[in-house]
């Protein structure tokens, strides 16, 4: 549909929540390989006065593999109640009837998501402050009550194996990583709410402050170390040096100490190391899967093809990690 048609439908969808509104300034935002994001204002007029609501619309195909829009909304609300900074969800619907695809509408949060721009505005003190806030946000997410939310609790190693096998493709390094992970699997941890993609690029930063945690489509139940390790993958440093391995902000020990302090727990080093290997393998498989979407003709995209070229980077990272050398 055209932007004007989408704006008209949005106004009708929002009417029960905000009353009669007009949608202005509807514009597509960049980013997101699987879902589309739009920013707009919903304007409600009463006499000579008008009230403007700055909102975000996220839409995605009904057959995608990630968490549904309604499930994502429930998880965000649970995280918010636990103290995590998240956008306030107005509406979410898994039906395609209203807008052509399932959707989620939330308030717009001021700040920056582009990592290079965030990096330019941070000094050492700002990075240390933001790193501590990221640890605190994860602690809040992990203590959220997932009761009543139909979240998956899939074995993540098995999920990686299945995703790679479905492409009928593999590499020697990936297979070595699978064998190591099977041989060193830690004991099962209590299931907690896991964001699934907590990293720089999925966070809104306003100055030195963490304003919001975005992109909840991979939310599930699992091991809290999954989120901690994912934040520390080399891919999410965006070129920062190894002494800032935690999100490109600071060292891993400081990050885990800040998390332990906020969560009132300790982080087992061996468990974290296992998840760091699994996270790196998972990212490599995601890169290969995104390339497959392009190569198969399912979704021709220079972006997907470019992501596919990063498979070799993850193989190098895995070789270093499996040899006991930080990636």
From TrEMBL:
InterPro entries xref list: ACAD10_11_N (IPR041726), AGP_Transferase (IPR051678), Aminoglycoside_PTrfase (IPR002575), Kinase-like_dom_sf (IPR011009)
Segment forming the signal sequence: none
Protein name: Phosphotransferase family protein
Pfam family membership, one: APH
Organism: [Mycobacterium] nativiensis
Domain Aminoglycoside phosphotransferase residue range list: 26-267
């Amino acid at each position: 549909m055209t932007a004007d048609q989408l704006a008209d439908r949005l106004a009708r969808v929002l009417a029960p929540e905000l009353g009669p509104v007009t949608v202005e300034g509807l514009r597509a935002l960049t980013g997101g390989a699987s879902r589309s994001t739009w920013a707009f204002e919903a304007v409600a007029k009463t006499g000579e006065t008008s009230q403007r609501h700055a909102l975000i619309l996220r839409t995605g195909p009904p057959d995608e593999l990630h968490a549904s829009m309604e499930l994502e909304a429930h998880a965000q609300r649970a995280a918010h109640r636990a103290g995590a900074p998240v956008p306030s969800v107005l509406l979410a619907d898994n039906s395609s009837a209203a807008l052509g695809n399932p959707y989620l509408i939330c308030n717009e949060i001021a700040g920056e998501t582009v990592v290079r721009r965030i990096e330019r505005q941070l000094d050492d003190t700002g990075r240390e402050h933001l790193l501590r806030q990221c640890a605190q946000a994860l602690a809040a997410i992990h203590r959220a009550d997932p009761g009543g939310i139909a979240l998956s609790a899939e074995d993540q190693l098995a999920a990686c194996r299945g995703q790679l096998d479905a492409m009928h493709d593999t590499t020697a390094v990936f297979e070595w990583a699978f064998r190591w992970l099977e041989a060193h699997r830690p004991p099962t941890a209590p299931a907690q709410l896991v964001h699934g993609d907590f990293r720089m690029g999925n966070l809104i930063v306003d100055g030195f402050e963490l304003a919001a945690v975005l992109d909840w489509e991979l939310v599930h139940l699992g091991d809290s170390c999954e989120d901690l390790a994912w934040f520390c993958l080399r891919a999410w440093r965006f070129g920062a040096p190894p002494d800032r391995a935690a999100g490109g902000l600071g060292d891993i020990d400081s990050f885990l100490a800040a998390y332990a302090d906020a969560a009132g727990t300790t982080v087992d080093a061996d468990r974290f190391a296992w998840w760091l290997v699994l996270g790196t393998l998972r990212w490599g498989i995601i890169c290969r899967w995104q390339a497959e979407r392009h190569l198969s003709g399912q979704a021709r995209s220079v972006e997907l093809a470019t992501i596919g070229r990063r498979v070799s980077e993850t193989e190098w990272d895995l070789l270093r990690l499996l040899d006991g050398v930080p990636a």
